[in-house]
């Protein structure tokens, strides 16, 4: 059995639901589902909690998985470790390139091409005036890229709160890509460990402003001055255009 199958088997053996296990680990139900279906793999700190919650030693969950049964060379192991260190969007790019090469090989061997559905992650962690779960990059479900989804979208995020209304409403889904962020663009940011959806602006002096488009919620604006010591990371640009810069 794979790691995910061992995890599900042990959870059911203990009579635990996904919701119960998620609560014990401080995660969401969808994160547990992603682990059990081998879509995502827990980070080290989550693994340690998982072993305790399931009352097993580490070898139990890895027993019979590809980690024990599949032998690879040192070079292949190095590639696997590099792949695991990549963010989710980069992993998707690697998989797409690999599938492209495999498709060329299948066609050269006479197989008919099979058009794969393109999937992107929809993060359940809310991002807006509110906060995201502590495992934002793991807590997601895969959705198919249909005609309603911009072709260039790399991920989707469900928004919580009214700070971006009327342009982005509470509970709506926004699509995000990794284009460079320009002043006036809306982005998904991690600010001092909290996930926010805000409009970005940088002035001539290098001061960075994260605006709420709903000016009644201007109290939720964030300003970064040089040398403030605060941390900010941009996860991507929300695919929405033509917005005004708040006064």
Walk me through what this model shows.
With 247 residues, the chain is α+β, with helices and mostly antiparallel strands. It contains eight helices and nine strands. It has a nine-stranded mixed β-sheet with strand order 2-1-3-4-9-5-6-7-8. Helix 2 crosses helix 3. The relative contact order is 0.11.
What is the domain tally? 3
- Poorly predicted runs are 65-71, 127-135
Strand content: 15-25%
Helix percentage range: 25-40%
Radius of gyration: 21 Å
SSE topology string = HHHHHHHHEEEEEEEEE
Question: Which CATH C-level class of the largest domain is it?
Answer: Mainly Beta
**Order of strands in the sheet with most strands:** 2-1-3-4-9-5-6-7-8
CATH topology type of the largest domain: Umud Fragment, subunit A
